Amino acid sequence: MSTKIFAHRGASNYAPENTMAAFQMAERMQADGIETDVQLTKDQVPVLIHDESINRTTNKRGLVRNLTYEQLQQLDAGSWFHRDYAGESIISLDYFLSWIKQTSLLLNVELKTNKFPYPGIEEIVLQRLQEHHMTDRTTISSFNPDSIRRTAVLDSAIDTGFLTSKRPKQLFSLMEEIGAKAMHPKFRLLNKKLLVECQQRNIPIRVYTVNQPVYILKALEAACDTIISDVPDRALDLRKSYITS
Ligand code: G3P
């Protein structure tokens, strides 16, 4: 099985992150899957946005958790990237699932609970995935070990990935304790030692966010399970030439 290529927040180098434009572009590029971020609105609607605040990627200011879904829908989530994307909006997880379930794409939902815990987010997201029959092709990841633990307790069958940008001493025992099935490390953590340790434990490695050819090739060479990239087209091309070379 060759390394899978996931589009990070959609094809986010080419279209505004976490919008339908970026997701549809990833599908056209024939990425294997999409990685996206979930936060909860004031009225508990799971929406796709990376930051806790709307400041960077919309035309207004404020925190997602202080705004209702209806308020978020009024925002322009595309112009910050390029005026051609002025019509893009923040979408709900529900809307996104209605679209992705009709494709053959895999999905990685990151629960953005590392700054605000969003109590109940694990149940809410799992429920939406079940309603759309997407649990079999979805991985739930998080930097917050409590979110992974809660997800694994709620649904022991769903795939889970522990996100980490550091290499703490107790990484593997922590992963075991919280029930994480895969490791999602920052690409700079990828080295022989980590590879061997994961291989010995049969833990898939999914590296983020890998954009430069030299690092994409390194992850392909290491036979990582997945590469999460803002430039899925580049990673797919490199994978093609890597396989045929
Ligand atoms: O899930 C991979 C990657 O998105 C994790 O980092 O900061 O982009 O959420 P970040």
From TrEMBL:
<feature type="domain" description="GP-PDE">
    <location>
        <begin position="3"/>
        <end position="239"/>
    </location>
</feature>
<dbReference type="Pfam" id="PF03009">
    <property type="entry name" value="GDPD"/>
</dbReference>
<dbReference type="GO" id="GO:0006629">
    <property type="term" value="P:lipid metabolic process"/>
</dbReference>
<dbReference type="InterPro" id="IPR017946">
    <property type="entry name" value="PLC-like_Pdiesterase_TIM-brl"/>
</dbReference>
<dbReference type="InterPro" id="IPR030395">
    <property type="entry name" value="GP_PDE_dom"/>
</dbReference>
<dbReference type="GO" id="GO:0008081">
    <property type="term" value="F:phosphoric diester hydrolase activity"/>
</dbReference>
<protein>
    <submittedName>
        <fullName>Glycerophosphoryl diester phosphodiesterase</fullName>
    </submittedName>
</protein>
